[in-house]
Design brief:
By secondary structure, the chain is an alpha/beta fold. It contains three helices and seven strands; from the N terminus they run βααββββαββ. The strands form two sheets. It has a five-stranded mixed β-sheet. The mean pLDDT is about 90.
């Protein structure tokens, strides 16, 4: 089975590349030093520092592997080339919540970058999925666990 493509914005790609670089260059060196220091303490069978350092090393290597796989299968959305006629990954959407009568703004991103605290919603989330392909003026019905929410698309912009 082919690996899933990970849709990333350029900012998301940069963030993951920087994290990978930090893990490979800095964190690996730090953990190797911790393991060396723990070994110098003698008996490894009852050495909590050694065990903790080896666990941390395992976690770092797992994260490196995860990031390498993510980046290998990354599809980068170039925000400057996003078509603003309809909603797609890489754009900022302003919508009007018909029920609560309030405006909201979302940045549509791939699932790996989603962060509700920063109003970054995934193209695979119920709201993101419903918005994809819609145009300014469209009314969108979003199926949620709480029922159907209606949004009117007010504006589509590029990311600042």
């Amino acid at each position: 089975m082919a690996d899933k493509k990970h849709i990333l914005t350029y900012a998301g790609l940069k963030k993951y590349e920087d994290e990978l670089q930090d893990l490979k260059v800095n964190r690996r060196r730090e953990i190797a030093q911790k393991i060396k220091e723990a070994r110098e303490q003698g008996d490894l069978s009852e050495n909590a520092e050694y065990d903790a350092a080896k666990d941390e090393q395992r976690d770092i290597e797992a994260r490196i592997e995860e990031l390498e796989k993510l980046l290998k299968n990354a599809e980068v959305v170039v925000e400057d080339e996003v078509n603003l006629d309809k909603i797609s990954v890489g754009c900022v959407v302003k919508v009007y919540d018909m029920e609560f009568e309030e405006e909201m703004e979302f940045k549509l991103v791939g699932s790996t970058e989603a962060n509700s605290l920063q109003n970054k919603i995934s193209n695979e989330s119920p709201v993101g999925h419903a918005l994809i392909g819609k145009k300014v003026g469209d009314v969108v019905d979003v199926e949620t666990q709480a029922g159907v929410i209606q949004y009117k698309v007010l504006d589509i912009n590029r990311v600042d």
